Amino acid sequence: MHRKNQTFLIERRALLKGAGMAAAGFAGFPLAGCEAQNALLHDSQARSNPLAIPPLQQGRIEGGARVFRLSLTAGQKEFVPGVASPTIGIDAPYLGPTLEMRRGERVRFHVENELTEGATVHWHGFELPADADGGPHQLIRPNERWSPAFEVRQRASLYWYHSHLHRGAGPQVYAGLAAPIYVRDDEEDALDLPSDYGVDDIPLIVQDRVIDGSGRLIYPSGMHARMMGVRGDRIYVNGTENAMFDAATGQLRLRILNGSNARFYDFSLEGDRPMQLIGSDGGLLDRSHPVRSVRLAPGERGQVVIDLSEGRPLRLVASSPDNAMGMMGGGMMNRRNDGGGSDRVFRILDIRPARAAQPASLPNQLASIAAPDPSLAVRTRRFVLDMGMMGGGMSINGATMDMNVVNERVPVGQWEIWEIANASMMAHPFHIHNVQFRVIDRDGHAPPPLETGFKDTVIVNPREQVRVLLRFEEYSDPDKPYMYHCHILEHEDAGMMGQFVVVNS
Ligand code: C2O
Ligand code: CU
Ligand code: CU
Fold first, then answer.
1. Sheet of strand 428-432: strand arrangement
2. pLDDT tens-digit profile of 9-28?
3. What's the predicted TM-score (pTM) here?
4. Contacts of 365 (CB under 8 A, 6+ apart)
5. Under 8 Å CB-to-CB from 370, ≥6 apart: which residues?
6. Distance, CA 10 to ligand 1 centroid (Å)?
7. Is 166 close to ligand 1, i.e. is its CB under 6 Å away?
8. For residues 175 and 95, what is the distance between their CA atoms, to the nearest angstrom?
């Protein structure tokens, strides 16, 4: 315990109680009525803890399908040693197993809700029938079981599953209802990339949390948290703080999931060392790109390969781009303390190689993906994201999420351009269900390497317009909607979400 090295900065802001917000809070979970944010400044030499690796679950083949049995359970976790906080997990006290499946397979789940509150489980990044999606309409009541099934159509990549409870995704994901999914396929297997789970192929679920002065997990619910999203100043990777990984190989593949509610991260290696970026949300890129940093917003994933051949320890760190009102260098309000500003550098993972090794190389060509062709599109749909005054009117095209309103009817099999514009002063990660799309451009400019592959979530910066090309290949159903929304979970819960159905034209 390095008590001496920790400084408490407690800021208490004037608070405005929100009416009707966070109505579906986790039972027994302390919803802070005010915005007490503790900035625990950690010594960067603080003791390391071995990185927790979620257990790999491959399910069981039954009647031609891969079947997973999962239970949502209440648990406890010590975010600070010796102080237990109530949590939610999937077959675990907190978070859950990595589900492994193969493209082309049929999968079935039996999800048992053993919580005392309703929940949902959404398969983020998958193309699937709307009633298997696990969005707000697929509520699983306490003591009920939900058994969706679908065919895995996705390319090999890192996906995830998490709560999508109507107006309650924020607190449930924060409490732990989230975990990774690995999809494997033949195309990727043929490349011989590092793929030994937990050995040279590691999932990193990066989450920030607010811990109060007594060491308990807090979900702030004041106006500031609802507007900016909940951001903590302590980072947990797979639930481990100050995580350390002992590598036995000369190359490490990290699959990074920004599983935070609201915080954006720029991931990099200390000392500005290069990483090879190989994958985005929906699979491998066409080739690897040497990069110094990777920006991921909530919901986004990125895969990098790190060279450990020198045998020297490396540290993965992240800075956090300021997503305050008046973004990126300038408004009057962006110096507010929101629990760790843009200049903080967070420790994400310390990597300790066993020994020096022969440098390994990556194949030149990864996936074969053609450039997106916007001329295929037969129409353009426009989505304008807005927050209203002080975050009081989270909306898309002027409408706040209404479970009874279908906002868009999209013909199946039709190429479309979705033009997403941001009228607010914060960046929003826009996520679309049931599709992997391609980014055409941002304000007319070609997208960065991470956005040259398949995506299901894309950052839209303030005053920016992003165009994506997409097509819903099947699963038309005029009655069952899918969602599109901001993946800052407090924005989603406050209504920056809309519904679409896929219809026969
Ligand atoms: Cu990852 Cu609609 O959510
Ligand atoms: Cu999703
Ligand atoms: Cu948002």
1. 408-411, 497-503, 482-486, 428-432, 457-460
2. 222 222 222 223 333 344 44
3. 0.90
4. 286, 287
5. none
6. 32
7. no
8. 8
